[in-house]
From TrEMBL:
SUPFAM superfamilies: CheY-like. This is Response regulatory domain-containing protein. Signal peptide: none annotated. Gene3D superfamilies: 3.40.50.2300. The chain crosses the membrane at residues 164-182. It comes from Emticicia aquatica. Residues 17-130 form the Response regulatory domain. Belongs to the bacterial sugar transferase family. Keywords: Membrane, Transmembrane, Transmembrane helix.
Length: 395
């Protein structure tokens, strides 16, 4: 590897997100020194923790795990799940043997490297994995497309109601757009790719409610974490006690796209917090909090309905990483119904006064709607939705 090729000012340096599963501090430090400036690295300490993370969060571009951390068993488990089957997994080992090469290949591992990455071009391989997975996801989406026919009555209601609503609400939409611009820097509308009826992918619109630096802010929000115990530790300018008098870090690491001190990192690692939950989340703008609590941030989705991406009533379109989990015969029927702004599980949850529903319960209700939707059923859900607009939640 050519260490002189590191460019810490290039905005695309941190576009590749990897999870490094490792407990050995020295291995972690060496990896961060070598690749930290070019990768966005998240360090987890066990294969079990990694499995839990990828089940509940947006998957990374690749996972790097050593044989000493149970990498082979981890690889086997990942390949058994439909939504992680194509997730790139790189295995590392102190000693590369022909038997290990064969085992990794047989279990469909993506690559094998020595623990110190003394050979092979990791960055080049990771860039290839990103392109390959994007292509696979596109092909899978095409092959999984279901023929979902939207009845004339449903499309007529969608077009006429949203057309009238957009015309009536246009002054409010303009005022909200101006206030968002005045409140904080960034785009007015937030776009997110979603999977709707028949596995069709489209961009859903919302008014932006978060600051544009939300991803960077979360790294500095440990003191606001509702699960964090009070700490007495002091951190001065991100430097340890030895480096503070010198005014600059003598042992730099690149972690999660930022420069940090190696000693500070190792100290923080000992007091790691596993879960993050915030009350009065500071990433949300002042005006954004009002938009969320009033559900006004959802109004741009009227354009999605008017254009035919989704319907007023239906199964909520899912982010790509969630939709990837539901490609089996057991769940595919969930996408056989129209996508919608509100649906059966939302009003069922509120009607029963439940704060949370399991993923299985939501999917079952989505399948029930896909099988039974009708004009009468849609009207029932529509009028049950109104009380939900008064609901306010700030967590």
């Amino acid at each position: 590897m050519n260490e002189n090729a590191i460019n810490t000012t290039d905005k695309e340096t941190f576009s590749i997100k990897v999870i490094l599963v490792e407990k050995n501090d020295q291995v972690i430090v060496n990896f961060l020194k070598k690749f930290g400036s070019r990768l966005n690295v998240k360090v987890l300490e066990s294969a079990e923790e990694c499995l839990e993370f990828i089940r509940n969060a947006y998957p990374p571009d690749a996972i790097i795990i050593g044989t000493s951390m149970g990498g082979i068993d981890f690889l086997e488990k990942v390949r058994q799940e439909s939504w992680t089957r194509t997730l790139p997994v790189v295995i590392t080992s102190e000693q590369i043997t022909p038997a290990l090469v064969k085992e990794v290949a047989d279990k469909k591992g993506d690559d094998l490297y020595p623990t110190d990455f003394s050979s092979g071009e990791l960055i080049t391989r990771l860039e290839y994995f990103i392109k390959r997975r994007h292509y696979q996801a596109t092909q899978q989406a095409k092959s999984n497309i279901l023929e979902v026919k939207i009845p004339f009555w449903k499309r007529f209601i969608d077009v006429t109601s949203t057309g009238f609503a957009l015309l009536l609400l246009s002054p409010i939409l303009i005022i909200v757009a101006i206030l968002i611009k005045l409140d904080s820097k960034g785009p007015i509308v937030y776009k997110s790719r979603r999977v709707g009826a028949g596995y069709r992918i489209f961009e859903i619109y919302k008014f932006r409610t978060m600051r544009t630096d939300a991803d960077q802010m979360i790294k500095n929000m440990g003191s606001l974490n509702m699960y964090t115990k009070e700490k007495s530790e002091k951190k001065i300018s991100g430097l340890c006690e030895q480096c503070t008098p010198l005014g600059a870090c003598q042992q730099q690491l690149y972690l999660d796209g930022e420069i940090t001190c190696e000693k500070v990192y190792l100290n923080q690692k000992k007091e790691k917090v596993a879960f993050m939950k915030f009350q009065n989340d500071p990433r949300i703008t002042k005006f954004g909090g009002f938009l969320r609590n009033s559900s006004i941030d959802e109004l741009p989705q009227l354009f999605n309905i008017f254009m035919g991406d989704m319907s007023l009533i239906g199964n909520r379109p899912l982010p790509l990483y969630e939709a990837e989990k539901l490609t089996t015969d057991k769940y595919i029927e969930r996408f056989a119904g129209p996508g919608g702004l509100t649906g059966l599980w939302q009003v069922t949850k509120r009607g029963k006064g439940k704060k949370e529903m399991t993923e299985e319960e939501r999917i079952e209700l989505d399948i029930e709607y896909a099988r039974n939707f009708s004009f009468k059923f849609d009207m029932k859900i529509f009028f049950m939705t109104f009380p939900a607009l008064l609901q306010s939640e700030n967590v």
